[in-house]
Amino acid sequence: MRRAARWISAGAAVGLLAACSTGEGVDLDGDEGTGGDATGEVLVAAIAGEPDQLDPHRTSSYFSFQVLENVFDTLVEPDENLEMQPALAESWEVSDDQLTWTFDLRDGVTWHDGSDFTADDVVYSYTRIIDEELANAWRFAAVTEVSAPDDDTVVIEVAQPSPNLLSSIGGFKGMAIVQQENVESGDIVTAPVGTGPFSVADYAAGEAIDLTANADWWGGAPEVGGVTFRFVPEPTTAVAELTAGDVHWTDNVPPQQVSDLEGNDDVVVGAAASNDYWYLAANQARPPFDDVRVRQALAYAIDREAIAQVTQYGNATVNQLAIPETSGWYTAYDTYSHDPARASELLEEAGVDGLEIDMMVTSEYPETVTAAQAIASQLAEIGVTVTPRELDFATWLDEQGQGNFDLLMLSWLGNIDPDDFYYAQHHSTGSFNFQGYANPEVDALLDEARTETDEAARKDLYAEAATQIADDASYVYLYNPDVVQAWVPELEGYEARGDGAIRFRDVSLAD
User: Fold this and answer.
1) 426: burial class by Cβ within 10 Å (0-12, 13-18, 19+)?
2) In a domain, 31, yes or no
3) Which residues are bridge partners to 359 per DSSP?
4) Which of 105, 164, 242, 337 is such that its CA lies 20 to 30 A from the CA of 149?
């Protein structure tokens, strides 16, 4: 049996590729301005969906970030232990008062079109996110100024000590450094220009995206000649193509097939304990969900073990908070045992009878559809009727933003710092607080934790905030899923990561 190590630190055109199999890759000739000729074998990866766009500052799609992880760089980036390491910034220092961060940029970095990367590109990128109030602007809440005293230096001024600044600017490619000309031309949506290990060579809508290796990448030229991300939404199809040798890698693995694949010598299964989490959120702007007892009743009525089993087939760890046990920021919490009797008592105390719930789900995240069926059955035991409403994900997001829901289920992916797990979701001013939760005590704890530089004291603050958030059932947390991926044995040097980042820059394909 072949199986990759379990990492406890943490989630082309079809016609051209239809005949490709392991050991028979397609060579993509590097076009002018893409870093030189790429003559190595092309790695073919099957992902579960198509990116909505390739502008890292505007997309919120995981499918987009799977591609963009290989195209763009950030100032710093997480290693396999989710600790921040140099990337476009070679080093940095913080002033004694913790209010000035100075980054020394790496020399000799160029964009995929051959132009020079400078500090002005960093200033443009961060200013764009802040001034246009894009989705990740909240990560710059403490930033008062971003400047470039020279081409090789970036200075970030903050209003208060910000121990989470490195994870905020480097935790994922939504904080990538982009090229102003590429943005202003509009080309970034489908033909982005980055500084990363691969450049976008072709985008066949509905089919695939071709990347070509960047021979001039500052981290060293990738060994593979390129990567083709094929869009294969059906998991059984993705696995069939993997076992047939038509693709080299996929993360679209049906949970119920994991154990069988682990016994297949033609496949390597890699799993990582994930920082992702799945949750339920009730709309507190709608009675009776504004009553904490009703939300607590939901938390007692559901059976997390059963939900995790039907959705993940054992490839998950039940958790009543967001941060997994493998993290140094973990807080133990087990208030909500599966207790339908207690749930019924709470509903009775709240004066609620015959509750009917509209639960928003999406087939693009099939876990939500499967879980909704289990949840409907579980809540029926306490006289609550759950009606799943299945939407495409774009509509789902719009309905969430408009507050047109009673209950929803979704996940947060790839968080690193505890601020990432709680502030935007549960602070009363949080940009992703779609459930409408507001608790002044939690606000104060989260605000204080953001500026606390003593790590032990900071951990205590987040533990207190997380406990209160769960007590109030702002989210009803379900489980932390494993990151599960599979690849052919010929793919060497690849590791599944707990933050879900898909990095192909250091891999090779053996003959």
Assistant:
1) buried
2) yes
3) 388, 407
4) 164
pLDDT at residue 138, rounded to an integer: 87
Give the CATH number, domain containing residue 47: 3.40.190.10
> Which residues have a Cβ under 8 Å from the Cβ of 375 and sit 6 or more positions away?
280, 302, 307, 359, 386, 409
- Count how many residues are written for the chain: 511
Q: Is residue 259 part of a domain?
A: no
Q: What is the distance in angstroms between the CA of the first residue and the CA of the last residue of the chain?
A: 21
Cα separation, 506 vs 252, whole angstroms: 21
Whole-number Cα distances in Å, 192 to 42, 65, 119, 255, 468: 20, 13, 19, 33, 42
Beta-strand pair 356-362/226-231: unpaired
pLDDT digits (tens, 9 = 90+) for 146-171: 999 999 999 999 999 999 999 999 99
SS3 426: helix
Q: How far apart are CA 257 and CA 264, in angstroms?
A: 11
312: nearest Cα among 502, 487, 482:
482
Amino acid at 418: P
Give per-10-residue mean pLDDT for the chain (511 aa): 28 27 31 48 96 95 95 96 95 97 98 98 98 92 96 98 95 96 98 98 97 97 98 95 96 92 94 92 98 98 97 94 93 97 98 98 90 98 97 92 96 87 95 96 96 95 98 98 95 92 96 80
Q: Select from 1, 444, 42 the least CA-distant residue to 212.
A: 42
Asked if residue 396 and residue 342 are part of one domain, the reply reads yes
**What is the rounded CA–CA span in Å between residue 263 and residue 48?**
23
pTM of the model: 0.80
Residue 467 is part of which domain span? 277-482
Task: Phi first, then psi: give them for residue 299, nearest 5 degrees.
Answer: -65, -35
Apex 65 CA angle, 63 and 69, nearest 5: 135
Q: Does a cis peptide bond (omega within 30 degrees of 0) precede residue 288?
A: yes
Shared domain for 92 and 149, answered yes or no, is yes
**And the tokens for 444?**
């104060």
- For residue 459, how many other CB atoms are within 10 A of its CB? 17
Cα–Cα distance measured from residue 266 to residue 284, given in angstroms and rounded to the nearest whole number: 50
HSE-up (13 A, CA, CB side) for residue 394: 6
Distance in angstroms (rounded) separating the CA atoms of residues 198 and 200: 7
Looking up tokens 């087990």 gives 334
- Is the residue at 38 inside a domain? yes
